[in-house]
Specification:
The chain is an alpha/beta fold. It is built from twelve helices and seven strands. Helix 8 runs parallel beside helix 9. The protein is globular. The N and C termini lie far apart (91 Å). The N terminus is likely disordered. GO terms for molecular function: tRNA (guanine(46)-N7)-methyltransferase activity. Keywords: Methyltransferase, S-adenosyl-L-methionine, Transferase, tRNA processing.
Length: 321
């Protein structure tokens, strides 16, 4: 009696079996778990040392910690925003990457009535470009209720709307958020403000890693020129990123304005820098949400702060071009 011989399993068949197996395992995960796991990938492409631990339990515990909302909630505990939401807005789904060159984002933002959004529209203004959820500005606004105004510019409309809802709920009358593409709207928005522009922050913007997408980066020559022109004498620019290549790009853009801007370590000995010119510590007193997560993952934050001085020197080479 002839015995049946099993046909050999091809490589293609093996791949199909493995793909089916892993797809089934992924589907077995609760939807929230799948979403949270995918949302914690470090954008600086630097895996945590804990991910290489031999103990599977230790790695799982680390993943649980990194996706925990306590990372941000503890830093911003006094805002008590965890349970505050707008029934009108509902759940705000955050889109991490936005193409600012899309035609839908090229419409200039409407200049608000400053008398309506601020109790005193003549106070010194801080503008945070790419303000995200707005927690960073609300924390600052709560601590400086009568001495400064704060303006957050955000290209994701839902985030700006939710931030204004939160600010109103906290009864903050010195902070406001505008849905705007700063590439298009920064100059017309900020130049219309009645008071002096004293601080502009650009904190951990989207790095747009691929070279062909570098044109999407927020820090471009026209924006830098607008910031420097509108900034009041003595005003400051604070930039930071957890991506070194992007930090260098931003630094080079502002260093090119050396006839009007000077790095603060040259005029304030309390703000020390490392050997490469990066600020050693955060001068703002509070970390942004991205900064919290990046440092937890083991990333370094690269920071620069400039101050506008009156006629430091002759026009720079960049200005003469």
């Amino acid at each position: 009696m002839a015995m049946a011989v099993a046909s050999p399993v091809t490589a293609t068949a093996c791949r199909k079996i493995l793909l089916t197996h892993f797809a089934f395992r992924k589907l077995r995960q609760p939807p929230t778990t799948r979403r949270l796991v995918s949302s914690v990938q470090p954008r600086h492409h630097c895996y945590r040392a804990a991910a290489t631990a031999s103990s599977a339990g230790a790695v799982e515990q680390e993943v649980q910690l990194i996706r925990s909302p306590e990372l941000v909630a503890q830093e911003y505990a006094d805002l008590s925003l965890a349970d505050k939401f707008s029934e009108e807005l509902g759940h705000v789904r955050i889109r991490q990457h936005v193409n600012p060159l899309r035609s839908t984002f090229m419409v200039p933002a409407e200049v608000p009535d400053w008398n309506e959004v601020y109790k005193d529209p003549t106070l010194p203004l801080m503008v945070d470009i790419g303000c995200g959820s707005g927690r960073f500005l609300m924390w600052l606004a709560k601590r400086n209720p009568s001495s400064k105004n704060y303006l957050g510019l955000e290209i994701r409309r839902k985030l700006a709307e939710r931030a204004n809802y939160w600010a109103n709920d906290l009864a903050l009358n010195n902070v406001h958020f505008v849905f705007a593409n700063v590439t298009v709207s920064f100059k017309q928005l900020v130049s219309a403000y009645p008071g002096p522009l004293m601080l502009v922050s650009i904190l951990c913007p989207d790095p747009h890693f691929k070279k062909k997408y570098h044109k999407r980066r927020v820090v471009q020559k026209p924006l830098v020129e607008s910031i420097v022109d509108i900034l009041a004498p003595g005003g400051q620019v604070f930039i930071q990123s957890d991506v070194l290549e992007l930090a260098i790009d931003m630094r080079d853009q502002f260093d090119a304005k050396s006839n009007k801007l000077i790095h603060v370590d040259k005029i304030d000995p309390n703000l020390s820098c490392d050997s490469e010119g990066w600020l050693i510590s955060n001068p703002m007193g509070i970390r942004t949400e991205r900064e919290i997560h990046a440092e937890f993952e083991g990333a370094r934050i690269y920071r620069r702060m400039y101050k506008k001085c009156v006629q430091l020197s002759m026009p720079s080479a960049a200005d003469q071009e």
